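Section 3.1: Structural characterization of target chains.
Under the original work plan, the team committed to producing a structural model for every single-chain target entering the pipeline before any wet-lab resources were allocated. The record below documents one such target. The sequence was received from the expression subgroup and is listed exactly as submitted; it comprises 219 residues.
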Amino acid sequence: MTLNLPNILTIFRLLAAPVVGLVFLFVMRPYADWIALVLFASASITDWFDGYLARSWKQTTKLGTMLDPIADKAMVVSALLALVALTGLSFWILVPTVVILFRETFVSGLREYLGDTAGTLKVTKLAKWKTTVQMLAISVLFAHGIFEHMVGMSSFGMDGQTFDAIIAGELEDVLGLQWKFTAFKLTANIGLVLLWLAMILTAITGWDYFQKARPHLKE
């Protein structure tokens, strides 16, 4: 087992994956949201960084090749499950989550079945874009949870009429409620659009892998 910097970064992502999901059980919000966001964003950055370093430093190893896709999938799955739980099984979160989890399980099963011929299912550029969009979507949705808490704290004890008047600019916004509410709405909309786009890319790449594997499945 070779432990170089790229592999250490990959192992960091793998160990951070369960923390992203379980932190909400042990830490109060919004601190849990901040921890999940920072960990997930950091792991997403290292996903690109460790691959770049491994190629440029010629430090590609069997360990890194094996752990890299596992770490990516573990991070995304853990984060999506946390989001599903936090949103109370929201249709807009649950549907893309189910599609993404199905695809990841299906493709992993195909690779395991193909064994030595799994090179047929090499990661494509579209699959890399899929992973990037997934990570962006999840990061934005974790940020949405932070702004949700900010809006809740700034409007605590405030009646609906007063809240609407502040948002409309009819009353002085002493607590910065307008920008917090704007950020709350933007992160929700952008996060969901990105997540559904990730779902579409996930389905397309899954079908592409299946088509490539079909000649080996005829038996």
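The first helix runs from residue 5 to 26.
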